[in-house]
Design goal:
With 602 residues, the protein is α+β, with helices and mostly antiparallel strands. It folds into four domains: 182 residues; 120 residues, GAD-like domain (Gyrase A, domain 2, 2-Layer Sandwich), CATH 3.30.1360.30; 107 residues, no CATH class; 47 residues, no CATH class. Helix content is 37%, strand content 21%. It contains 18 helices and 21 strands. Strands 1, 4, 5, 6, 7, 10, 11, 12, 19, 20 and 21 form an eleven-stranded mixed sheet that branches. A four-stranded mixed sheet has the order 2-3-9-8, with no helix packed on it. A hairpin with a 6-residue loop joins β11 and β12. The longest helix has 21 residues. The chain is globular and about 100 Å long. The protein starts with a helix and ends with a helix.
């Protein structure tokens, strides 16, 4: 069936990081990779809300009984991030940037901005909630397949960065927590995988038009909401690559289609949960997994699934089967490494004789399936309870849930869809009246067009520099040094650092704005010439730059040196002469310039 026949509905949520300071404190928004200065250790416990009920996602996380460790820095994280101090006043610069975006999409800005708390249960916020504020509603973007309406634009704080994730322990870093985010959520107006990608690209272009946004890898993230006729809204988290969006949408639509088709086939009722200890079957097993389990005093527990033979191996997505779906639920809810199911056995050291014995103990008929878990008893029991729960949901169709985007375009289970009542007011932050005099910046498409028409840049170079994190520096250098060609400035800021990294294996990311400003000032003052810009930047990366090395020689002086070398080495081949010239004129002229002049004199 085509996507159109399936009745696809799709919406996206885009999260864009902002530059400057964090949303509720004065800490910088730098993301660090060096060793942290301190750690904080916590557990998460669910509590009843105003309704007297516990959030299902929070309760699931508590049952996993994991420890959360938070790593921080004394100079770039503070007590707000560790939830040891109330939030400070909301970052007004971040709010202004959000308002600029709202103006570009003609959204209705709220007369009052109220900061809310949104319950978050995966440990990614030390407080157990995320602070978020609705700024506007009812915006619009145009695509080639029609209009896509924007349901809401919010300003919120980013979550912690994951460092490691194990069954018993999850480690986060506090440097990203509190970084301002603009969150844009569309209505489910998207009708094709390609339109989803186009919408994300359009919104991304508008966001990158704003002077206050962060640029570079990881600064913008997409979540995708997908459903088909008869299915349920599924939220897919972490779709980082725009190129992957169409495949994600298509494969999620396929997964829901297969689950709905499976629902029609299930004409029987799921039996009550009955977990059986079958450890005795494997007393003499040679399976490494089984042996390791016994060495750790674990057990082998099993669950019979009536009439499931052949279904557990059914493919829902490429390389992703119903058994994989069950395994994903067991991994998240119980922290086990995985499950065994009857459609994949014998395998993993489990023999045909073992399978026959298992079926006998479980009293399986020919069309019955089963699932095994090898782990400590408590975890194995939780895992099989999760499998039974997921098997029961098959009879209802597609369960609402949050899933993670995988690199191959498939998805895996993360957590239940949180309830609608997980938001409540943040009483530590006062109400805000947003500024009305907001100026819309030059849009990215307009900027690219101006670079081409007024500065003479090619289409590719204009697009490259406009989207790069060097665009503000480019604008400044073009104005300050009109004698330098704009294309040369753009190439120096973008292509030259890439050349240094790829060709010379040096970390050109260490080049600062001040390095480039100094470089163009030296060019303007005639202290260096254009031909040796690459050499100067390499020295700056190495930390060996010394302007005295680059005292410029005039062309006549260079000719004199080259002529002298030719006279002293009559009949020497070009390569030998070139080597002597390079040694003599090191730092005085580029190799390209020396080579050209040597050829002329020869």
């Amino acid at each position: 069936m085509s996507i159109k026949d399936l009745g696809l509905k799709c919406g996206i949520e885009i999260h864009q990081q902002l530059d400057g300071k964090k949303l509720f404190c004065d800490c910088p928004t730098v993301i660090r990779d060096d060793q942290p200065h301190f750690t904080v250790q916590r557990k998460l416990r669910a509590s009843a809300g105003e309704s007297g009920e516990m959030d299902v996602a929070a309760l699931q996380e508590q049952l996993r009984d994991r420890t959360f460790i938070y790593e921080g820095y004394k100079d770039t994280t503070c007590l707000v991030e560790t939830d040891s101090e109330p939030p400070h006043e909301l970052n007004q610069a971040a709010l202004y940037t959000a308002l600029q975006f709202c103006k570009t999409i003609k959204a209705d800005i709220s007369p009052i901005v109220q900061v809310m708390r949104k319950t978050v249960v995966d440990g990614s916020n030390t407080s157990g909630f995320q602070r978020t504020a609705l700024v506007a509603r009812n915006g619009l973007v145009e695509t080639s397949e029609g209009k896509v309406s924007i349901a809401n634009v919010s300003l919120e704080e980013d979550s912690c960065k994951i460092i490691s994730d194990k069954a018993e322990e999850k480690v986060y870093r506090l440097d990203r927590l509190g970084v301002p985010l603009i969150e844009i959520g569309t209505n489910p107006d998207i009708k094709s995988p390609e339109q989803c990608q186009e919408t994300a690209r359009k919104i991304g272009m508008l966001l990158r038009s704003l002077p206050g946004v962060k640029r570079g890898l990881g600064t913008i993230r997409q979540d995708v909401n997908v459903s088909i006729k008869g299915g349920t809204r599924i939220e897919i988290k972490g779709a980082q690559d725009l190129r992957q969006l169409p495949l994600l949408v298509e494969l999620e639509a396929k997964r829901q289609f297969e689950l709905l088709r499976l629902k029609k086939e299930l004409k029987w009722k799921l039996e009550k949960l009955n977990i059986i200890d079958i450890s005795s079957v494997f007393e003499r097993s040679d399976s490494k997994i089984i042996k390791n389990t016994f060495e750790k005093n674990g057990k082998i527990l099993a669950l019979k699934l009536k009439s499931f033979a052949g279904l557990l191996g059914r493919e829902l997505q490429p390389g992703y089967r119903l058994g994989t779906e069950f395994s994903g639920r067991a991994k998240i809810k119980a922290g086990v490494g995985g499950i065994f199911h009857s459609d994949e056995l014998p395998k993993y050291g489990i023999t045909e004789e073992d399978v026959t014995a298992i079926r006998r103990v479980l009293k399986c008929s020919g069309d019955d399936g089963f699932v095994l878990v090898a782990d400590e008893e408590k975890k194995a029991r939780l895992a099989l309870e999760a499998v039974h729960e997921r098997a029961g949901e098959l009879f209802m169709g597609v369960p609402p849930e949050v899933r993670k985007a995988n690199a191959d375009g498939t998805t895996s289970y993360l957590r239940p869809m949180p309830g609608a009542a997980r938001m409540y007011p943040e009483t530590d932050v006062p109400l805000i009246v947003p500024e009305k005099d907001v100026k819309i910046p030059e849009l990215l498409e307009e900027k690219i067009s101006r670079y081409q028409q007024k500065l003479g840049l090619s289409s590719d170079l204009a697009t490259f520099i406009a989207k790069s994190d060097q665009v503000m520096l480019f604008e400044e250098l073009v104005k300050r040094y009109p004698k330098q060609k704009a294309a040369f400035i753009a190439e120096t800021l973008t292509s030259t650092p890439l050349e240094i990294k790829r060709k010379y294996g040096l970390d050109s990311d260490t080049l600062t704005e001040e390095n480039f400003k100094d470089l163009f000032k030296y060019l303007e003052d005639g202290k260096i010439h254009k031909d040796i810009v690459l050499d100067v930047l390499i020295d700056m990366v190495k930390g060996t730059f010394d302007l005295k090395r680059y005292d410029q020689l005039g062309t006549e002086d260079i000719h004199a040196v080259i002529k002298k070398i030719i006279e002293q080495n009559p009949g020497a081949p070009f390569g030998a002469l070139m080597g002597k010239c390079m040694k003599e004129l090191a730092g005085k002229a580029s190799g390209e310039f020396i080579s050209a002049e040597l050829k002329k004199l020869l």
